[in-house]
Amino acid sequence: MSDNQLENYLDRCRARVEAALNEYLPLESIQPTRLHAAMRYAALGNGKRVRPVLVYAAGEALSASEDALDAPACAVELIHTYSLVHDDLPAMDNDDLRRGRKTCHREFDEATAILAGDALQSLAFKILAWDKTMPANAETRISMIESLAMATGSRGMAGGQALDLAATGREINLTELENMHIHKTGALIRASVQLGTLQAADPDPEHVRGLDHYAKCIGLAFQVVDDILDIEGDPESLGKTKGKDMANNKPTYPSLLGLEGSHRMAKRLQQEALDSLCPLDAKADPLRWLAGYIVDRSR
């Protein structure tokens, strides 16, 4: 893999999802204008877009078309954005900076941010249920909605955030930490890959299982690296407040394993993810590149 191959792929996927999001999101000129402005502020702009890129990469690995993947890619990104808007609120993580600019509740106000998160979430499910550009039958649409709903609720992100809040200020073991992040971070990454595979026509079940295991591994690796960057990262590159977890006395992988042990764990998970792609051909190369990008990233 060359850096140019990865960057070109990321740029292409990001451009697609940005253009599609711009079409799906209500215009600021439409009432209620302040709410729609907050939704667009939160969803458009300088995000890494890892989750929608995974939708594209997983679907393309099984020969799904890019056009078929725009809608699920946007749905996943809208859910991710809603979670960030709510996580940044004073009642949660109380952050002032996100994606290199003020968080939604700082740019607007807390009530508007809550409503924007709610509306972004509902828009995600509307897209999967209704979007006419997505060549999917009713059964596939229901499977996609089920997958995303599971990743979003009490057995996914919301449950992981609840575990995170409950763990703040107390000691937990490595198993508890992993369980928390399998839900908080890993569930939506796993759903991103699942939504991509659901757009493939008659995929090999072995390939689908391999992709699911890949998603589990990189989902956990993503969080391990996030914890490392909270200590080692450059705030300008991160686009968010550095050292927030330590300041809030949150359990992290470096606090349990040390920085060196955390780096080793991320590399081990990367290799396990790559091993799970062995049955797949070169169409899965973007997934291979993404495993490296997730572990080696600086933000």
In short:
With 299 residues, the chain is an all-alpha fold.
Distinctive features:
299 residues, mainly alpha, Farnesyl Diphosphate Synthase, two-stranded antiparallel ribbon, 14 helices, 2 strands, 1% strand
List the helices and strands and how they pair.
Layout: H1 3-24, H2 33-43, H3 50-61, H4 66-87, E1 97-98, E2 101-102, H5 104-107, H6 110-130, H7 138-152, H8 157-167, H9 174-198, H10 205-232, H11 235-238, H12 244-247, H13 253-275, H14 285-296
Antiparallel strand pairs: 1-2
Describe this structure in words.
With 299 residues, this protein is mainly α. It has one domain: Farnesyl Diphosphate Synthase. It contains 14 helices and two strands. The chain has a two-stranded antiparallel ribbon. β1 and β2 form a beta hairpin. α3 crosses α9 and α10 packs parallel to α14. It is globular and about 45 Å long.
> Biggest sheet, in brief?
2 strands, antiparallel
Distance between the termini: 21 Å
The SS-based structural class is mainly alpha
Number of helices, where a helix is a run of at least 4 consecutive DSSP H or I residues: 14
User: What fold name stands as the CATH topology?
Assistant: Farnesyl Diphosphate Synthase
- Whole-number total of structural domains: 1
